[in-house]
Design brief:
single chain, mainly alpha, de novo design (two linked rop proteins), about 80% helix
Length: about 180
Amino acid sequence: MYIILGIVVLIGLYVMMAYNGLVKSRQMAEEAWSGIDVQLKRRADLIPNLIETVKGYAAHEKGTFEEVVKLRNQAQAVPAGDVAGRAQAEGLLGQALGKVIALAEAYPDLKANQNFSELQASLETIEGELQMSRRYYNGAARDLNVKVESFPSNLIAGQFGFAKRQYFEITNEADRAVPSVKF
């Protein structure tokens, strides 16, 4: 009888530890997603200032600016939990931002403008922090996914509704390409 009671207690302790580990992993993934969301918001807030600064020098590039604003609005309209949709929208926005930065190469006065230089530096800082946030999120998602799929924790995950997380990644190869600007 003590053996059976001991086995039941051990199984109960394992279920409790596995459940708590899954909760911790889920919370880490949610925290990591929040970090990405914060960096994307910072980038989205910076875009109008960058566009206005560049507009003064490159008024004839109206189509490029309109595209960036449209893509920014589309990226912000993606539902919060749609990791794949947000990744795709942000990839397109990043490519369009690359075109705006590339425009600066054609306008020496713009490159020398302190406001533009500060905005560009801020954007580069945000992009670096965004990369770190993406890596952190993907690591947290990986850890959760391993626990959700590994035996025997997958039994507990299935019973309590824990699900795998999608990775935040660029799925369109064209989004990885270096943008080109033609005059």
